[in-house]
Structure formats: C-alpha cells, structure tokens
Amino acid sequence: MTLLPVVVLTGFLGSGKTTVLNHWLSRRDDLAVIINELGQVGIDQALVGETSVPVSLLAGGCVCCTVQGSLRTTLRNLFMARAAGDVPRFSTVLVETTGAADPFGVTSVLEQDPWLRRHFQLRSVITTVDARSGMAGLSRHPEVIEQVRAADVLLLTKADQVEAEQRGPLEAALAELNPGAERRWSEQGRVEPTLLNRGFPRRCRVTGQLSAVADPAVPPLAAASLASRHRFHAADLRWRGAVDYFALQSLWADLLEQCGPHLVRLKALVAVDKLDGPLLVQGVGGQPLEMSPLPSWPGDDDDSRLVLITDGDDPAFPGQCLAAFRTALDRIRH
Ligand SMILES: Nc1nc2c(ncn2[C@@H]2O[C@H](COP(=O)(O)OP(=O)(O)OP(=O)(O)O)[C@@H](O)[C@H]2O)c(=O)[nH]1
C-alpha cells in the first residue's frame, strides 16, 4: 500500500509557520492539516484562511509531549475518513507544531507507532527561522536549536525586515548547526508549494545537548543556550463585549510592561467598537505588536480571546498577567 506522506512544519513561536501555511493553503487543495497550539482557545485555527481542506486542531499542549497521543488518534481518524470518502482525497498531511515543539517528538510518533508506520511516512521537516530576530533569536531558546537541527529545509522568514548585511552571519550560523539542510529566504510566507512534494533522506536524531558534549565543532551559541533551558507557560482569556480602540492600547502597554522580557508570544482576536470583524493582535518577543482588523470573525466563534505565552520558572506568571489585563478590561468593556 502507498504510504501517505507527512510534512512537519515547525519553527519557534512567532517565526512565521502559520503565514507560510496560509500561503500553501491558498495554492493547494490536496492537503490535510493538523495544527497544534499551546493555548486552549484556538486562535491559530481561526487564522488559517478559508479552505476546503480538512483542518484538525490539537490545542492545549505540545504535540511532541503532552498531546502526542492525540496526534496518533488524529492521524488515524484522518486516514479512516479519507478511506471512507468523508473528506477529500488529500495527498499529503501537513502537521504544524507548536513553536515550543521538539520536532523529534513528532517524527518519533510516526516512526514508532506500528499502525502509523504502515500507513504514513515522514516526508520532510521544514523549519521556519525568524530572521528578524537573527542571531539573538537563535541563542535565546534551546528549542530553536533543536528545530534547526531537525530540519531538511530551513525557511528564513521575514526577509522583508532583514538588512542584507545581517543575512550572511545568520546563514553561516545555521549552516554550522545543520550543514545538511537547504536554506531559503521567504517574505510574507511566500514559499513555493511544490516544496511539500520533495522527500529527503531520513537522518538520525542529533540533539543540541548531545552534540554540545560530543562534538567539539558545535557552535558556541548552541552550547551557551543549553545552559538555560527555557520553559514556556500559556494562559488564555475569553470575553464578550466590544472595547474602544484607544482605551485598548493602554491595556496592551500595561500587559507588555508586566510581562517584560518574559513575553514570548501574544495572540488575540478582539471585538473593537465600530469594527465588523475582530482586531487581530500579534506579539513576538520584544518586537512591536502588530494589529490588523479582519473583515469578519473567522468561523462561528465571535468571542474575543487572547493567548499569552511567557518563559521563566513560574507557570502561574501568564495567568497573573492576564488577571490584571482582565481587571483593566472590565473597566473599559461595554
Ligand atoms: N514582516 C513580516 N512579518 C511576518 C512574516 N511572516 C510572519 N510575519 C508576522 O510574524 C508574526 C507571527 O507569524 P505567524 O505566521 O503567526 O507565526 P507562527 O510561527 O505561526 O506563530 P505561532 O503559531 O504562535 O508559533 C505575525 O504577526 C506575522 O504577521 C514576514 O515574512 N514578514
């Protein structure tokens, strides 16, 4: 029996996975997509544009560990639905991991589960690297190193915001971390969708950790980053009722200040006075918030919602930040 190919799209939080995924979905209708999110409230799925392809959401944990079992079940269900003709006969499954994922935790599911091994085959691991955060982005979180090392193809995203002289050092660092991977630059998610058809020889796992010990050639940035393995914690908020745009701005400022350097990712869909659709708010690390009004609410769910992901030792921290946000929100909400 022909095995169904699986492509894993990984890359750190906010590095541009969903943007690339949307570009591919606008050009291919032969995919089935599995989206994994750390938060419970499912904003990523809402950010995937109108599509006729099956999209499954695995929320509330990381597919490389806590929701690994759900990935197995989702893949089986997709296979069965395709065989029964309940979904279009997709040719490729695309798994978008959370930005904190260890891609090997995903690929090992395919390699170790006997049933999945008989029906699916890993075709490639494609990793987005946020070129705007450059070398600092590579060294801050060890997860990035793992994702880079696991890649068959490295997509250097946000090329529109990267100066020519910054490109060389970043490419050199990536080549050192993963000499076998192809590197491509991309702007606004524009990556040739035929990339999904290409297979690559499978390689053994090489972790940043092991190679830092065993490989004297390991770049110093990889070794340094392992000294402080970050933890990510997510908290969500949902509410109803529109708010004034300008009053909302001061809430973001307070939230960013409270999170300080611990802010890793922020995503929100917010009902704002005089707008038909929600305001999409996105934050990545210390980069300025991006705000764009959407023409309409995606799907049936028109609750405002916010996901906050922070790093550090305190799992309660993002929840505390959102509690303060909620209190301020209640003052301006109608
Ligand atoms: N200027 C610019 N911004 C980009 C590009 N790609 C993505 N972005 C922005 O970067 C932010 C994060 O992009 P996403 O595609 O949501 O990143 P992601 O990796 O899916 O994020 P998570 O799912 O939270 O890990 C958004 O605000 C995007 O608009 C790009 O090529 N250029």
List keywords for this structure.
12 helices, binds guanosine-5'-triphosphate, Rossmann fold, 334 residues, 12 strands, single chain, alpha/beta, Hypothetical Protein Yjia, Chain: A,domain 2, 2 domains, five-stranded antiparallel sheet
Summarize the SSE layout with pairings.
Layout: E1 4-11, H1 17-25, E2 31-36, H2 44-47, E3 55-58, H3 68-83, E4 92-96, H4 103-112, H5 114-119, E5 120-130, H6 134-140, H7 142-150, E6 153-157, H8 164-177, E7 182-185, H9 208-214, H10 220-226, E8 232-239, H11 245-259, E9 263-270, E10 279-284, E11 290-293, E12 304-311, H12 317-332
Parallel strand pairs: 1-4, 1-5, 2-3, 2-4, 5-6, 6-7
Antiparallel strand pairs: 8-12, 9-10, 9-12, 10-11
Helix pairs in contact: 11-12
Bound molecules: guanosine-5'-triphosphate.
Domain CobW C-terminal: 232-326
Keywords: Chaperone, Hydrolase, Nucleotide-binding
Protein name: Cobalamin synthesis protein/P47K family protein
Explain the overall architecture.
The chain is an alpha/beta fold. It has two domains: 223 residues, Rossmann fold; 101 residues, CobW-like, C-terminal domain (Hypothetical Protein Yjia, Chain: A,domain 2), CATH 3.30.1220.10. It is 36% helix and 23% strand. The strands form two sheets. Strands 3-2-4-1-5-6-7 form a seven-stranded parallel β-sheet, with helices on both faces. Strand 2, helix 2 and strand 3 form a beta-alpha-beta unit. Helix 11 packs antiparallel against helix 12. The longest helix has 16 residues. The protein is globular, with a radius of gyration of 20 Å.
